[in-house]
Amino acid sequence: DNTIYAGKECKPDLPPSNVGYVTGQVYQDENNNCIYDAGIDFPIANRMVQADPGPYFVTTNDDGFYTFRIEAGNYSIHLAKQDYNNRSLQICQQDSLYYISILKDSTSSGNNFSLKLTTDTLGNCIVTVNTTFFGIDNCLNGPTYITPCPGHFHNYLYTVSNSINSTSPIPANTTLLLNLSSGMIFSGPSLLSCAGPLSPFGGSTITRTFTNQIVPGGTCNTIIRVWVPIGAPSPYISTAQYTVPSNPPGTNIIVNGDFELVGGFFSDYAIGCQMDGLYQISPGSVNAPLPPCNNWNHRGLDNTPGAGVNFLYADGANVTNWDVWREVRPVTIGQQYTFTAWYNNVSFQNNGSVNPRMQFLVNNTPTGNVVDLPMLPDIWVPFSASFTPSTSPVTLQLRSITGTLGSNDFGIDDISCISTNCGGIVFDQLIQNDACSCDPNDKLVNPSGCGINGNIKKDKDLKYTIHFQNIGSGPAHNILVKDYLDRDLDFSTIQILGSSHTITYSEILPDSSLIIFFEGIELPDSLSNPEGSNGYFTFSIKPKYNLLDGTVINNKAGVYFDNNEVVITNSTKNTLYEYPSPIASFSSNHACNSVSSYNFTYTGITTDNTSYLWDFGVNAIPQTSTNQNPMGIIFTNPSSPNYVTLTVFRNGCESSVTDSISIEDISCGMNKVLVCHNGHTICISNNALPAHLAHGDCIGSCQNINKSKQFNNKYFEKEINFNIQPNPAKNETNINFSIPDNDDVVLTVYNFMGQKVAELFNNYAISGEDYSVVFSLSNLSSGVYVVILKTSNVYEKRKLFIVK
Q: How far lies 794's CA from each of 586, 678, 681, 747, in Å?
């Protein structure tokens, strides 16, 4: 029979249509009666429920309700195993499993789960706010813009979430404050979930008040249309500040968080500038480097919302366990606190610097996210984190954990720590540097990662956004999206963050696909309504724990418009690494017999699958190298700084760092040169230089030689003693010294600009005698000073730190 018969279209990858329904509610039972009492109990949103066999997964909505759509059969219904340990079933809950026999088109309801808290911490909630950008207008080649474009409208989605681990709802009357870059304009709402008014549109700032509470696991979305005028420059920045008022209002326990006062904190950094591991308090400058540092690649301006003009400026150290800021404060045990701070990368763009990575710690325990500061001077990045102390007092700490020299420079300002009960301030900031970017892909992942393989850290959350557009000739009634989840993702961590339209239901099928269904949304076609024809939804999910380096996470989706053929999106790819980007850092030292010949050592820890490119500049021989640790690089121009750039390539990604090499002036008098002898800098005649070099001494001062020295030199059997106590000092200090041979001694003090501020000793000294000079600091300001001890054969420097 060759007859062609008309048949029903087969779509085997769609969810089954002949289904039964299983429904129930998940809630926190405050009065332990296993009955949901409105006004007393509260629902748990986004709690995952599981049906076996399958398995099938669904999550509860903001009212705590869930619905399974499953084929006829016998199932067990239970709470899915998730990484939540602060709630368990109430004692009165008789069934931890519901055994259901379901028929086609039938419904089994009332399969509720009554929960209680298993933690003693009451009244605390874990709040987050996230910002997502969505284009509206199409690019010239068809797809929508994925970054702001002058002359076009765009949508920003702001999602406020109360974690499912929260022990209570977020109270009513909370505030979302939104700010845009200068020139960008809020033009009107696109979609609002949850009750709450918006302030008037037309400017770059807008406020929304949420009049109802947000239950644990619940979210509230605010989608606002934004106009970017022609000529508006990048970067395009959106900052969201969500405030939950405390009752009673909390008090800031930080002593000097805006740095407008003197002191109040500790630092492992010393006061000063132009050297790694130093800091200063400075008002900065709009068009000039920070006074008095005059660093060639630094600038800063106090652009934070707090009072005053000062901020803490730090020249980052290559030591990752140094606190640049630290306060020890008494707290109430068991009370929730919210810590906030603002950070700024003070390095100019495109100078090869490595971004500072800021970490907040409580009692040496990392707390909150690490903040990678973009290289955008004067753009301040907000940070917030909550913690509940179990001891008092607590040590609050801020560090840069980048661990590199020759960049890693940053500002800190407006630090606060306020006691809250389900309260505090939470920030999110979206910075987009590129204008009018277009991408034919309609499925995006954030973070996209570095390199062609999308390298990201293993523990990084993945946020997927799926765009869809109705390009048919009429409205689309129902939209179904099927996302193919990688099996190396932890399905129990999935969270729907937002959508352009109300989601009718969502579920995960046994084939690991996520189903999102929009029913009856009447999506217009693109010809009659280009803006209204677009839709999207976004969700987050975590990779599984303890995956191997190099694990690849792939993802794609299919979109069904009514009964039309499926539209397959592009695929996204991320590759998981402990260190997704190579670490670029190096040390250098000049050769013992020449201050213009340098050896370089790569000091990063990412040495596997790694290649290197060194650029020593036009005044070097050779000018470049691909060795890991190049040696014998000759710099031919000692009169100017020589900038060295190391670029490290690894697993498709690259990182760079730049530092300067200054050729030391070793002259210390008529026909005399500096030599590092047995760890001390001495001044010798040129005629004696060959003998010193032959015995293992190195030409130049000791501070410029990265080399361990353990020599037994017959010329100096006695050691010099030279120290400052106390150091740091406030009012006065003692300069102590003894010398190995009878000689004339000059003891002088210079400020960090090289200006002589005092001569403390100029006399003949006896070998082996102990000398002590009392130095009054009353006429000197806070800062770093250099004390120099000089004899005919000795030239020694010590740093003096004055703190007032």
A: 31, 12, 6, 12
367 forms beta bridges with none
Q: Hey, what's the torsion of the CAs at 227, 233, 235, 239, to 10 degrees?
A: -40
* DSSP 8-state code for residue 547: P
pLDDT at position 531 over 60: yes
Which tokens is 376 given?
Answer: 């955008």
* pLDDT (tens digit per residue) in 275-319: 778 888 876 543 334 444 544 445 556 566 666 778 888 888 777
Convert the pLDDT of each residue in 38-72 to its tens digit: 888 999 988 999 999 989 999 998 899 999 999 89
Pairing of strands 455-457, 278-282: unpaired
Q: What is the DSSP letter of 693?
A: H
| Most confidently modeled range among 124-128, 500-504, 625-629, 773-777 | 625-629
DSSP 639-664: TS-EEEEEEEEETTEEEEEEEEE---
Residue 357 φ/ψ, nearest 5 degrees = -120, 110
Using pLDDT thresholds of 50, 70 and 90, give the confidence band for residue 541. Answer: very high
Distance in Å from the first CA to the final CA of the chain: 101
Say if strands 113-117 and 87-89 run parallel, antiparallel, or are unpaired.
antiparallel
Q: How far apart are CA 645 and CA 618, in angstroms?
A: 12
Q: Which residues pair with 328 in a beta bridge?
A: 395
- The answer to whether residues 449 and 461 touch, using CB atoms and an 8 Å cutoff, is no
Domains by residue range for the chain, with CATH: 19-117 (2.60.40.10), 122-247+421-439 (2.60.40.1510), 270-420 (2.60.120.260), 441-580 (2.60.40.740), 586-661 (2.60.40), 719-804 (2.60.40.2550)
| Token pair listed for 241 | 């500040």
Q: How far is CA 226 from the centre of its chain?
A: 26
Task: Show the beta-strand stretches assigned E in 686-725.
Answer: 698-699, 721-725
Which pTM value belongs to this model?
Answer: 0.62
